[in-house]
Amino acid sequence: MKIQSVRARVFEWKGKTVPPQANFCSNAMDALYDRGDSMKTFRFHGWTVVEIETDDGIVGLGNVALAPHIAKAIIDQYLAPLVVGQDPWDYEYLWQRMYRSTLAWGRKGVAMAAISAVDLAIWDILGKSVNKPVFKLLGGRTKERIPCYYSKLYRGDLKAMQEEAQTFLDQGFTAFKMRFGYGPNHGTRGVAENLKSVQAVREVIGYESDLMLECYMGWDLDYARRMLPKLEKFEPRWLEEPVIADDVDGYAELSRLSAIPISGGEHEFTLHGFRQLLDKKAVSVVQYDTNRVGGITAAHKINALCEAHSIPVIPHAGQMHNYHLTMSTLASPMSEYFPQFDVEVGNELFYYIFKGEPVAKDGFLQLDDTLPGLGLTLNTDYLDQFQISE
Ligand SMILES: O=C(O)C(=O)C[C@@H](O)CO
Ligand SMILES: [Mg+2]
């Protein structure tokens, strides 16, 4: 079997979007005074879809949601020529070929996200070629069902947050991730607002459910040092991305400082990046995203590294490419899960581009042992709401 063609298309959502609310999620732009839409960096309304076809007609699907047009250019100009004519079963060789030929300017960020998209499509082909789901090629079924946590609860009106939490508590979820709305530039009022929101959600879900707290890189080390003791009474399952991804020593200090587990990884890349995080004991929960970190080839290695370090892997964002990694290792106890909503931040777009995403039931997800590859097809129901560029 040989790779015959690589097609990368950018799907830009032109449909209805939920307008962002101020302070709906702390983020790295909060450190700057606002000169316009500080939330612009926070909307992922484009997605690159990669279709790789082999000489015997198998088509593998990959995807990347970071800087989609740049990712497409990297795939078209640099990566596709490296894999066309090659055997997809040589996936380690092909991964190294893509990684080493872009090392001078790649390694992390959009270049590695582009490599991830090609790698996902290659693994989709591998599964389809032997009529097996990808997780069966990685270690098989390690769970009867995948426990998942409900993820949204963006900061807004506290009553609305409580109603949202109640809705999904009633659907059987026993783990919830909420977003802080305030950080260092919002002073003591912001601290109070942050604590009020955690209190409000805890009042609904109680203490028999897990509660995860998301900062999305919107705090800094000093602010996180001051917030951690105030948060301990709420017994969070983890505090996520309290500082920017480059502040690895900051992560390590916070991890030493508090009993609250510090999580991160959705903005880290490759086995090498996670080796650094683990060597420095920077995080207690690893959250790579398989469509960023280096694809399945890289994520599979990171799973093994985390198993050796007894650090749980709970991949970012849910989505099928991550569910196969969670299903196939005991190192990954659960998945993140965003139900399908109207398009807001962009995590939701996955449902509008692809069909096949499992829907959670009673707080669990299921994968199909008989569905080959990643188990996704392109969703044709919303094509008229996308601007698609070849
Ligand atoms: O789901 C997450 O962990 C994210 O970081 C996504 C973004 O919506 C902020 O929470
Ligand atoms: Mg996050």
Automatic annotation (TrEMBL):
An annotated Gene Ontology molecular function: L-rhamnonate dehydratase activity
Pfam families: MR_MLE_C (PF13378), MR_MLE_N (PF02746)
GO terms (BP aspect): carbohydrate catabolic process
Coiled-coil regions listed: none
Cofactor: Mg(2+)
Cited InterPro entries: Enolase-like_C_sf (IPR036849), Enolase-like_N (IPR029017), Enolase_C-like (IPR029065), L-lyxonate_dehydratase (IPR034619), L-Rhamnon_dehydrat (IPR023444), Mandelate_racemase_C (IPR013342), Mandelate_racemase_N_dom (IPR013341), RHMD-like (IPR046945)
Keywords: Magnesium, Metal-binding
Residues annotated as signal peptide: none
Annotated transmembrane regions: none
Thylakoid in keyword set: no
Catalytic activity, EC: 4.2.1.90
Residues of the Mandelate racemase/muconate lactonizing enzyme C-terminal domain: 158-261
Family: Belongs to the mandelate racemase/muconate lactonizing enzyme family. RhamD subfamily.
Subunit-structure text: Homooctamer; tetramer of dimers.
Protein name: L-rhamnonate dehydratase
Protein's organism: Pigmentiphaga kullae
Phylogenetic lineage: Bacteria, Pseudomonadati, Pseudomonadota, Betaproteobacteria, Burkholderiales
